[in-house]
Specification:
single chain; 133 residues; mainly alpha; 4 helices; 77% helix
Length: 133
């Protein structure tokens, strides 16, 4: 019987792609894709996903780091989708568009901390493997 489950490295990429497409889809419910504002907001919405992709790459080969980056991705996917959906459909407001700047900015800051921590622990684990102190 052939194993049809996705490889462990495919899951983070699938989450990043799905999250980016979902969040952009919700953004384009509010703005027209041809406007200049749509391009600016798209960059803001995609920034955390690009950082999360980098975090997944840095976490490769380290099970705890990989799980932590997956938790960040799933958390941002869930919370971001909820916040965007709530702003568009449940509690529409004239200032609601700001959620497409504030939520990605906050998520980007959290992921920058994660990436920085992954970089620090990667250097430390490489030194321990080589025997240097």
């Amino acid at each position: 019987m052939k194993n049809t489950s996705p490889s462990p490295s495919a899951l983070p990429l699938a989450i990043v792609v799905f999250g980016a497409v979902l969040h952009l889809g919700l953004l384009f419910q509010v703005v027209t894709p041809k406007s200049f504002a749509a391009w600016l907001f798209s960059i803001a919405v995609l920034a955390p996903w690009l950082l999360l992709f980098a975090a997944h790459r840095l976490a490769a080969g380290r099970p705890v780091a990989r799980r932590l980056s997956l938790v960040f991705s799933v958390s941002y996917l869930s919370f971001g989708a909820w916040a965007f959906f709530d702003t568009i459909y449940v509690h529409p407001d004239a200032q609601g568009g700001l959620v497409f700047l504030v939520i990605p900015f906050a998520a980007s800051m959290a992921v920058v901390v994660l990436v920085f921590a992954l970089l620090l622990t990667r250097q430390g684990s490489a030194a321990r493997r080589s025997g240097a102190r």
